[in-house]
Every structure is written in structure tokens, then in C-alpha cells.
Amino acid sequence: MSSTTKRISLRASINAHCKDCLYDPKEKGTWRKQVERCTITQCHLHPVRPKPIK
Ligand code: SF4
N or C end of the chain: which has fewer CB within 10 A? Predict the structure, then answer.
């Protein structure tokens, strides 16, 4: 990795991926709420998908 490349955490990467995958601003709920309701259990990220911050 070059010194100019910004490191991104695994958590931030998963969050960004799930948000890109599922979030629809026209649908009800925050992106975290929508991702929490994801029903694609075959996805490898499903067990670690982001959920609303309590
Ligand atoms: S867990 Fe759901 S929202 Fe996240 S990448 Fe997989 S299918 Fe998309």
C-alpha cells in the first residue's frame, strides 16, 4: 500500500458495501434500518451487516 492510500477499516468497508447494495432513499427508514431488514441470508456479509446504533 502506498503512503498516499487512505486505510479504511473492515467495518467501514462492509457498511459502505451494504449501503450501496440495499439502501433506497425513497424507501422508509434509515440506511441502517433498511440493511437490518435485508433478507438475503445467502450473502456472506449477512451475519455481519450493519444494524441501527442503539
Ligand atoms: S448483507 Fe444484504 S445488504 Fe449487505 S451486501 Fe449482503 S445482500 Fe447486500
Answer: C
